[in-house]
Design a protein that fits this description.
Elements (H helix, E strand, L loop, with lengths): L1 H12 L4 E8 L4 E6 L4 H22 L4 E6 L3 E7 L2 E10 L5 H22 L12 H9 L17 E3 L2 H17 L3 E8 L3 E4 L2 E4 L1 H21 L3 E7 L3 E8 L2 E8 L5 H20 L2 E3 L5 H8 L15
Antiparallel strand pairs: 1-2, 1-5, 3-4, 3-10, 4-5, 6-13, 7-8, 7-12, 8-9, 10-11, 11-12
Helix pairs in contact: 1-3, 2-6, 5-7
């Protein structure tokens, strides 16, 4: 079975532009791989990194067909196995890989991989593991880089401020996207913190927060694997396509019917609107979030036994 599985992964690796193919158990265990890795550590790095984004995508979309993360230096492709939620395929490629050839080859091989796993691997791999709260805390403490309680925290997100003209212009762009692409279910901007700017105005909702979280998790994966900046995320399910584009201090999110238009044409249409959106947001006012003095004193002050000291302004 190992030879058959490796041969199947090698068939995908032979596509021009494909660099590595790794079959991963959903808890991050690499099962098999084909590619140009220099060490086992790199195989485990890509498996552990991509299992995180696989979990986020499944939380948002349920069973999805594939997820594509694109940067200026590479593409990272995650593909679910048919009728098997315990495994997925991770493929890293050069930036100019032939996506059409990759999709065709994937359709021909995913079912074969799923069949081989069910026939030969069931019961031979370590079981999927879950962790209690205490175990999770112990794992997180293992990543600590400082001794004792002298730990400092900082925020990395900025707050964006739009004037009326900028907000109306953004809504006009969103309206053009909605009208020019058939089958649009939802189109909006999710600014830092998950605040949604849509055709219905400014609202806070779950959809914006989820889109922002999916992009944020994907960006961390791309930075971990390639040390490059994420540009686009595309997640396709049986019925919809979810496009997420990076824009200044937020993301552009589009949910559209999968069969409404060809993928290549849709990406070509979106290119202009994304450029216009980025231009508008680059002109917006950006500031760092500030913490009130009272809150700083509350969080940072400590008594003899390192208990919190509550503070407040005099009336």
């Amino acid at each position: 079975m190992n030879d058959q599985l490796n041969d199947t992964l090698q068939d995908i690796k032979m596509i021009t532009g494909v660099e590595n193919v790794v079959l991963v158990q959903r808890d991050g265990l690499p099962v098999a791989s084909a590619g140009v890795w220099f060490s086992k550590d790199e195989v485990f790095a890509v498996a552990s990194s991509t299992c995180a984004i696989f979990g986020v995508a499944r939380l948002i979309h349920g069973n999805f067909n594939y997820l594509l993360m694109e940067s200026d230096t590479s593409k990272v492709f995650l593909a679910s196995l048919p009728n098997d939620a315990n495994y997925f395929l991770t493929i890293t490629t050069a930036p100019r890989v032939n996506l059409a050839a990759l999709f065709i080859e994937m359709r021909a091989n995913l079912s074969q991989i799923s069949y081989l796993l069910k026939q030969n691997v069931d019961g031979r791999l370590p079981p999927l593991r879950s962790y209690s709260n205490n175990e999770t805390q112990q794992i997180l403490q293992g990543f600590a880089v400082s001794d004792g309680a002298d730990t400092s925290y900082s925020t990395s997100r900025s707050v964006i401020s739009l004037d009326r003209s900028q907000a109306l212009t953004l809504r006009s762009v969103l309206r053009q996207v909605h009208d020019s692409i058939p089958g649009v279910d939802s189109v909006f901007l999710a600014l830092n913190g998950g605040v949604r700017v849509s055709l219905n105005g400014f609202t806070n909702d779950r959809l914006a927060a989820m889109s922002f979280a999916l992009h944020d998790a994907s960006e961390r994966v791309v930075r971990t694997l390639r040390n490059s900046s994420l540009q686009t995320v595309l997640c396709e399910t049986g019925k919809t396509r979810h496009f997420i584009y990076s824009v200044p201090n937020g993301v552009f999110s589009l949910w559209v019917d999968r069969d409404s238009q060809k993928l290549g044409l849709m990406r070509l249409l979106l290119k202009h609107y994304i450029s216009e959106t980025r231009r508008i947001l680059e002109s917006a006012t950006v500031r760092r979030p500030s913490v009130p003095d009272d809150l700083k004193e509350l969080l940072l002050s400590a008594g003899p036994e390192r208990s919190l000291l509550f503070a407040g302004r005099e009336p």
